Amino acid sequence: MVILATKEFNLMELGETLVAEPESLIGKKVVVNLFHLTNDMKKQNVKIHFKVHQIQDDKAYTEIVGMNMVEAFLKRVVKRARNRLDDSFEITTKDNIKIRIKPLIITKNETKGSILAALHAKSREFFTSAIKESTYEQVVGYMLTNELQKKLRDNLKKIYPVAVSEIRALYKLS
């Protein structure tokens, strides 16, 4: 049975599997590197999590249930004499889908706690307003094009220079 990606990736084939009962495939997860889906080397540090939700005509159709950064990339971007800000919180999208988002912010230089607190508060405020006005599909599209990350950096650089503003992980909860 062929497992297909979502329409964002033009129903690209993710792989094949042998199953006795096709319905037993529903709920199974497949993790794929974004580079393999887009052939863009800049996106090799992101893994996309797909979940099979429908079987039709000997094809398994998936939905995106999450994405996360590769650990090796995170270790490479975090350097000495810089501050790393991690966060994790839940937000509900416009179409009532609950997601967990985990942003990662790295400052250009080491800084005071008050500035870090301001960056933390501003990033949370940014994501809350941006995601509440968007559907889940739109949020995934923004993530794939790095649109949210660029807007976040633009908002945060008014407070303090930011070297990295990425979304470390995003998971669909409902």
Structural commentary:
With 174 residues, this protein is of the alpha+beta class. The chain folds into two domains: 2-69, no CATH class; 78-172, 2-Layer Sandwich (Tetrahydropterin Synthase, Chain A). 29% of the residues lie in helices and 36% in strands. It is built from five helices and nine strands. Strands 1, 2, 3, 4, 5, 6, 7, 8 and 9 form a nine-stranded mixed sheet that branches. A hairpin with a 5-residue loop joins β7 and β8. The radius of gyration is 18 Å and the shape is elongated.
Keywords:
nine-stranded mixed beta sheet, 174 residues, alpha+beta, 29% helix, 36% strand
**How does CATH name the architecture of the largest domain?**
2-Layer Sandwich
Strand content: 35-45%
How many discrete structural domains? Answer: 2
How widely separated are the two ends?
27 Å
Q: Please, how many helices?
A: 5
Specify the CATH class of the largest domain. Answer: Alpha Beta
CATH homology superfamily name of the largest domain? Band 7 domain
The H-and-E topology, N to C, reads as: EEEHEEHEEEHHHE
Q: Helical residue percent?
A: 25-40%
* Arithmetic mean of pLDDT: 95
Q: Strand tally, please?
A: 9
